[in-house]
Amino acid sequence: MPEGHTIHRHARDQRRLMQGKALAVSSPQGRFERADTLDGRRLLDVEAWGKHLVYVFEGPEPRRVHVHLGLFGKFRRHKVPAPPPRTTCRMRLVSETHAIDLVGPTACELMDEAALARLLARLGPDPLRDDADRAAALARLKRTRASIGAALLDQSVLAGVGNVYRAEALYACGIHPDVGAASVPGAVLERLWDTLVAMLRRGVREGRIVTAVEFAKGEKRRRVPRREAFVVYGRRACRRCESPVRRWLVRQRWAYACETCQPPPSTSS
Ligand SMILES: [Zn+2]
């Protein structure tokens, strides 16, 4: 599933192409109901909250489109004239210059202001948003009874963090994924939040996740092969100390840790 940096990058790219323009809006597949009610309206903004995208159109409610890519959703971009849409295209947006096709999302639906408020109430702070409230995020981590590894993937605690950032940010802060979130000292949680902000922002800038930055600097980082991009994620040995990396399921996703660099709870408490 795409992590938050991918969604923010889609929002940024689509704003650049289509913000302020009147768009032709359609659902070639037909499963985005009432898509035609937005047809011809001006797109005011594309916003990202965690893994959710929200398009805001000018005019009467409902004037928002909520998109969640899920595991299989994808965008395809074309220059106008665009090829005919595939029959699986859930939503097509067309400006005078570009077309964007959305295929295979988990959600693509009209949304009014009240529904947006309900969605946002379910989401924790998103480290990539300028208006994110760090104190509120840390309070949510302190309140949960889950392990820190489980809490980071809970979108109602923090929005936008996925499996790779979980593994790499916990590693960078020396925190074992099984440590109870509430037992992590406040100063360490602050550092974890700041680490996530920096890692996610770099991901938006570079369009991919490279967290082993001390091993791959500057321009070279863009070409670093995937297996060398991480310190523990997907690895057999820790990039720094070469101890074996342990892999186990936390919240149904593989967690990775170097138990030399990230002491397990029994030895660290
Ligand atoms: Zn290590």
CATH topology of the largest domain, by name, is Helicase, Ruva Protein, domain 3
| Domain count | 2
Order of helices and strands: HEEEEEEEEHHHHHEEH
CATH architecture of the largest domain: Orthogonal Bundle
**CA-atom Rg in angstroms:** 20 Å
Contiguous helical run count = 7
Roughly what percent helix?
25-40%
Question: Average pLDDT value?
Answer: 94
- SS elements, strand count: 10
Bound molecules: zinc ion
Major sheet size, sense and barrel closure: 4 strands, antiparallel
Sequence of strands across the biggest β-sheet = 1-6-7-5
What is the first-to-last residue Cα distance?
Answer: 33 Å
Q: What this model shows, in words?
A:
The protein is α+β, with helices and mostly antiparallel strands and 269 residues long. The protein folds into two domains: 4-122, MutM-like, N-terminal (N-terminal domain of MutM-like DNA repair proteins, Alpha-Beta Barrel); 134-268, Helicase, Ruva Protein, domain 3 (Orthogonal Bundle). It contains seven helices and ten strands. It has helices at residues 4-18, 113-122, 134-143, 148-153, 163-172, 186-206, 265-268, and strands spanning 24-26, 43-49, 52-57, 64-68, 74-79, 89-94, 98-103, 107-111, 245-250, 253-258. It has a four-stranded antiparallel beta sheet, with helices on one face. The protein has a four-stranded antiparallel beta sheet with strand order 2-3-4-8, with helices on both faces. β3 and β4 (64-68) form a beta hairpin. The chain starts with a helix and ends with a helix. The structure holds zinc ion. Zinc ion binds at residues 238, 240-241, 243, 258, 260-261.
